[in-house]
Structure formats: structure tokens, C-alpha cells
Design brief:
13 helices; homodimer
Amino acid sequence: MRQIGFIIGVFFLTSFTLSAQTTADPLPSWQEGKVKQRILHFVQVVTNPSSPDYVTPENRIAAIDNDGTLWLEQPLYTQVIYTLSRVKALAQAHPEWKKQQPFSAVITDNRKEIAKFNAQDFERLLAATHSGMTVDNFDATVKQWLAEAKNSRYQRQYTALIYQPMLEVLNYLRAQGFKIYIVTGGGQDFVRAFSKKTYDILPENVIGSASKTQFQSQNATLIKMPQILFIDDKAGKPEAIHLVVGRKPIIAFGNSDGDREMLEWTQAGSGKRLMLLVHHDDAKREYAYGPESKVGTFSNSLMKEAKEKSWEIISMKNDWKVIFPFEIKK
Amino acid sequence: MRQIGFIIGVFFLTSFTLSAQTTADPLPSWQEGKVKQRILHFVQVVTNPSSPDYVTPENRIAAIDNDGTLWLEQPLYTQVIYTLSRVKALAQAHPEWKKQQPFSAVITDNRKEIAKFNAQDFERLLAATHSGMTVDNFDATVKQWLAEAKNSRYQRQYTALIYQPMLEVLNYLRAQGFKIYIVTGGGQDFVRAFSKKTYDILPENVIGSASKTQFQSQNATLIKMPQILFIDDKAGKPEAIHLVVGRKPIIAFGNSDGDREMLEWTQAGSGKRLMLLVHHDDAKREYAYGPESKVGTFSNSLMKEAKEKSWEIISMKNDWKVIFPFEIKK
């Protein structure tokens, strides 16, 4: 009897383990429905060696936008907030800025003037805060700022304002052998400063807008320069992915007009592909914005193209049970 | 007695296996000596978790030059031979080239004129042969050429003229968890066309000189453009490694003045580092060249710096038992 009890015990343990393995949900923060099923189905068929859509692990490339796709981008891109904050921090060392625009508007918090800034104004602010230091100094400065600064609406660190359902996508894709690249219009070195700790994504897997650097032989350091090398937005996204990766993603996530070309290029490859767009339609838990937004514009023509080409629209309101990791009770 | 015999048999089998494991030489084509010992020792201490020099796998970045370090570069870089060959192949479609320099010199094999080409001439030849097609077409054209073309001295494919001792280094580093990047002054897309098949190195692990591409929405393709984005040579090497990888290598192999800054930058990091230079001093089996060579210049000042900074000089003549894989009898 003791032996039979033992055998029954083993049987139950085994079936419990098997059942836990087969029913474990890799995307628990996603509502059941078409979008979740399409992600799960795509990953299953491209990773199943007996499927006609099978893709070898080395070709499982995922491209995922950052601002508005992996983390909050409203009311301003976090890197813009960082830039304004750095201008203020550096103002004491630059007394001449008090009489110089665009700096004086930033130092005196003149929102009316700031709202009128053009591209050239932003380039000057970027040059003043993102160049003239070693790449290591820049990295340390961003890390320190992110450790201290807080978003005003949520009163949390910016790296806490990442999307829990997308973290689950990252973990799921990683576990299924995908190589994940962040493909951001934001600064490559800025995102690299937190990508490992926040998303478990290494610096070499971050593709972003990049400025030149200059090697200095005397102390063997790399200095960040103000000249822009490329802008990783719109057509710049497939161009930068080719530059860094040398081949096409098979799955791509975006959330705005800046991601359109990346999704078009991803779809143009042979074999099974999946293109998705996060739609910010949740004014209560996050923000609802679309064609009129200056940040993360989702134009009507993008929505039309998405529907025509069977790109999946992820509704934050309907498809995501939670938005941020802190909503999950530990 | 039979049982004792069995036990003794198992004992010998076990000790043989253990002994084979501990003495298996990862670098059999390297002569015993200082250079080989230094490579083995470096890899052992950075991969041993109980060593003070231990480096976690994700930080084991290796940077290795291609021309003259992984494969033959004399009497001309292979990509230059490809370029001249493509001009001839395209000449029929460009009757105007017959009367245009630098094209006419190439078409008529006018070595005297070719020897006088300046940088601008080469840029025109590169633009004519490396742009105006999709990235996929370029890749296919390079692959086809490499399958057919042969080096005149060795009468072998160019991808057969790779260095066996360096292949062993690649396999050894890979087995020890290193992430290996080719860092070449040559064209990134050119080297990507053979890096996987020849070295088992994926496209995203090839950093090279790059021209711009342009995304075309109507058919979602990337066209190679004539404008140069960056030249991955000299100071361009650390700059490009930062652009693509975002951090420093801990080991770097080069063979010429073009690799100097990459080695300086590698050495400037904290923790244990190893910098090596292949010295082409074997006129019999390969080539002997140095300060006067136009291809793969190894200046006296580089040799001086290498000695002062304890960079290892690899003598092809004395440190390598074989040069090419075909020398090994199968």
C-alpha cells in the first residue's frame, strides 16, 4: 500500500508539473482575445520545427519601438525632460545662457517660449546636454538622473513607467529564442543607459538616433560630438536596422507614424510576419491620443494602412489588464 | 575476476576521457610558446569565476579585424578585386565608361593607370559597383562572385584563404562564451555576405565601413546609396564599435596601423585586457610586409607602441604551424 501511495503521489506530481507547463500563460496581463491569440499563435508557429512557418533561432529577430511602445511618452518624451533638466543643472556653469535663447526660456521655465521651440532650438539644447563629454560620463549622468527624477502625474521614476504587458512580450520572445532589438527614435546612448536594468536588453541590442563620437588618442576616450550621424525615425528605422543588424525582423511593434516604415519593411520579407501597433486609447489609466498629438502621432492614414495590411492594433484600454508593473500586487 | 576486470576497464576509460578533456588543445595550429600561452591564459582567467580577473559572459566582447587578420589581404584587398571585376562585368551596360576614367583603365586592364588611382577614383568605382541596387541584390552578387572567383597565387576561392589559427581562436572564444565582432575597414555589407558561412559570424556581428541606404516605401526595399556614412578604420574603429556595441572589447586582434586606435581603446578599459597584432613575416607560405606596404601597413611606430604597451605580436612564420585550412590533411 505504501508503494502504491508512492506511485500515485508521483503520478499526481508529474501530471501537476506537466499541466503547469502546458497551461502557464506567458502573457497574463493581456486580456483574452484576438490580439493575444495572434501573438501566441505567431510565436508558436515560427518556433515549431514541424510547422511550415518555422524560423531558425538565429533568424528570429524582433524590433520594438521604445517611446509609447515600451514606456510612457506623454506629456513629453522622457529624453526631452532630461534635456531640459540638464540645461537647468548646467546653467550655473554657463552664465551666458541667461541672455541666450533657447536656454533662457528653459532656465526661467517660460512654458510659452518653450512651446514655440523649433527643431533648431532643440538641436542647440541637445548639443549642449548630449555632447562634449565622454560616452562613459554621459552614461553615468543619465543613470543618476533616472535614479532621482520622478514623473509628475504618477510620482514614480521614469523607468517604473514601463508597460507590464510589453515586459511579458519581451520575456516571452526571449524565452522562445528571439533576439530582441529596441528600435527607437530616441538617443541610442540615452536608452542604453537603462535598457539592461529596465528591460534586460544589452547595449548592443539598442538601435537609436546617434550622434558622432570622436576618439582621442592621448587618453583613449570617446567624446560625444554634436553632429548627428543618423535619425532613427520613419524611413530611418529600416535603414538603421539594416546598418546594425543586417537583416529583417520577423516581428515588429510600434505605436506611431514614426514606426510605419519599420512595419512595412518587416512585412515585406518572405515567410510569416507579425506587425503590431500599440494604440493609446486609455485616458483613465494612461493617455488617449491620436492624429493630433505632437508626441506619438497616430495618423488616420496609419490606421487605414494598418487595417488594409492586417497589422494588429493593440488597444491599451481593452487588451491590457494592467498598464504598469506597480499595479500588480506583489 | 571478470568484475575486477570490468572495474579496471571502467577506470581506464574514465581516466582516458578525463585526460582527453583536460589536455584537448583548442589551438592546435599554434606553435607552443609565449603568444599561445598568453591567449590561453587570458581566456582562462577571464572565464574562471574564482579568478580575480573574471568577466561575466555578457561582457566578453572580442573585436577582430578581417583583412590581414582573418584572411589574406595581398596583393590587393579582396573587395578591391571584387570592385574591379564588377566594373568589367558592368561595362557592357555602360558603353560610356570606355571613354571615362577611372573606368576605362579598369576595363582595358591598364595596370599603369590603375596604380595611379587616387581616393576619388576609388570612390567613383565603389559608387558604381556598391550602390544603386537593393541590399539583397548586392548580397547575392557578392556571394555569387565569391563562389566563382579565384586568387591567382593560390588558385583557390578567396574564402578558402582564411587563417586556420585564427579560425581556432574564433571557435575557442565562442566556446568560452565570447561575443565576437569582426571590425573591418572593408565594407560591412561585403563582409556580411560571407561571414556566416566562412567564420560562423552573423551579419549583426560584422562592423565595417558603411554607406547610406534609402528606404523606398512603394516596394518596401532598401537601396544602397553612394554616400558614405562612416569609415571603420583607425579612430573610426572604436567609434564604430561604440555605435554598434555600446561598450568596449576586452580582447582585440589587428594587423596594421588601421587597428591601432581599436587596440588603444580596448586596453584603456578596467580589468584584464589582451591586444594582439598579426605580423606578416612569412614570405614563403604567405607574404612578408611591413612599414612600406600600401595594403596592411605595419609602421615602425606601431611596432614600438605594441612593445611599450605589451601588445602581443603574432609572428605568422614562428607562431603558426599552418596558415590556411587546406594545408591540413583531412
